[in-house]
Design brief:
Elements: H1 8-18, H2 21-30, E1 35-36, H3 37-44, H4 48-60, E2 64-70, E3 76-82, H5 91-98
Antiparallel strand pairs: 1-3, 2-3
């Protein structure tokens, strides 16, 4: 994957996914080779449940892929690996991506705004 291949919505998803320090750590850990969930959680010092949340987001953004392998003792193990990607953000690539955005929603569904919400305190 590279920036030129991404639609505006895909670019927003990838950048939002990369905005998490935990997900950056997961990508860094997987950059040296594939790993299974329990091993990766142990290496990163986080729970498997939290890791699964981050891996799901990374998979949705197509930054990682997974495959199930059966171990010698017959246990199914899900391995993850990093997909090749290169992001080259330039004013021109951002302009091209903006032209393909599906909506004008500036914050992709977030309810956060810089203005106070009516009825909020």
């Amino acid at each position: 994957m590279d920036t030129a291949e991404l639609t505006g919505d895909e670019l927003v998803r990838v950048l939002a996914t990369l905005a998490s320090p935990h997900r950056l750590r997961v990508l860094a850990a997987l950059s040296s080779g594939r790993n299974y969930v329990s091993g990766l959680a142990r290496d990163l010092g986080i729970s498997r449940a939290l890791l699964q949340v981050h891996l799901k987001k990374l998979e949705q953004a197509r930054l990682v892929s997974s495959e199930i392998k059966v171990s010698a003792d017959g246990k199914a193990m899900k391995f993850y690996h990093v997909n090749a990607f290169a992001l080259d953000l330039t004013p021109q690539s951002v302009t091209a991506a903006v032209a393909t955005l599906a909506s004008n929603d500036s914050d992709s569904g977030s309810t956060h705004t810089d203005q106070p919400q009516i009825g909020s305190r």
